[in-house]
Amino acid sequence: MMISSRRISSTPSVASCTPSKQAYNSTRQERIMNQANTGNLTRLLLIIAILCSVQFTGILMAQGSFIGTEAEFVNTHSRQRFDINSSTRAVHEIEDISSEGFGFTTRVQRLRTFEHNQNLISLRQENIGDVVSLNFFDTKQYQAVIQSVHVNDVGRTVITAQIRGRQFAYCHIIVGESTITIRAKLPFDDEFFFASTTHGQTILGQMRLSDLLDDVLPSGAPLYHL
């Protein structure tokens, strides 16, 4: 009996093995579920990332389309630029001339011959906002935005433009087929530029605005009467 008892006790019982297998199976199932959950979460995050990427790409494409449309609009409606000089000679190539014999009653700082741009005659109200390049001399060049344009009683084009980068600075131009009158005032620079046609010859000059008198110019309308 003693031997039989020892044999029975030395043989492992099914009941003693069952909890260990259950624990193993439970751990395995939890591991599989965790892996499945991790995979599902990864796939979910990937789907979210793809959706966000698609949406962001759509926004960029829409913005790019808008920007492109805006650029085309700006290019289509870009402002024109008109130089007061004809294109025959560059400003720096034109030498100054003496003011003697032109009837000035005050000192003219610079003077030169001047051939105006014939396209100025064709400017109309549609050109308001366009730019006039006031290339007076090689060291005196300004840009002016057209404020108003009209044709006067004698068929000449009258242009008023505001000079960029200068306070209270304006340029007035009266242009016909063979004549032109220019008056440009830059008060804070004490500069005055003028152009007028006398006996078929057009001259362009510079003097101090503080020295300006109504009768200093040999021809053309005085500045304050334009």
Please tell me the overall pLDDT.
Answer: 76
Question: Regions with pLDDT < 50 over 5+ consecutive residues?
Answer: 1-17, 59-77, 220-226
Total tally of structural domains: 2
End-to-end Cα distance, whole Å, is 141 Å
C-alpha-based Rg, rounded: 44 Å
Shape call: rod-shaped
Instruction: Tell me about the largest β-sheet.
Output: 9 strands, mixed
Instruction: State which percent range the strand residues make up.
Output: 25-35%
As a percent range, the share of helical residues equals 25-40%
Q: Would you count the extended β strands for me?
A: 9
Order of helices and strands: HHEEEEEEEEE
Q: Compute the number of helices.
A: 2
For the largest sheet, list the strands in their spatial order: 1-3-4-5-6-7-8-9-2
Alpha-beta content class: alpha+beta
Protein described:
The protein has two helices and nine strands. By secondary structure, the protein is an alpha+beta fold. The chain folds into two domains: 2-76; 81-225, no CATH class. The protein has a nine-stranded mixed β-sheet, with no helix packed on it. A hairpin with a 4-residue loop joins strand 6 and strand 7.
Layout of helices and strands:
Blueprint: H1 2-10, H2 14-76, E1 81-83, E2 110-113, E3 131-137, E4 140-151, E5 157-163, E6 170-175, E7 180-186, E8 191-198, E9 201-208
Parallel strand pairs: 1-3
Antiparallel strand pairs: 2-9, 3-4, 4-5, 5-6, 6-7, 7-8, 8-9
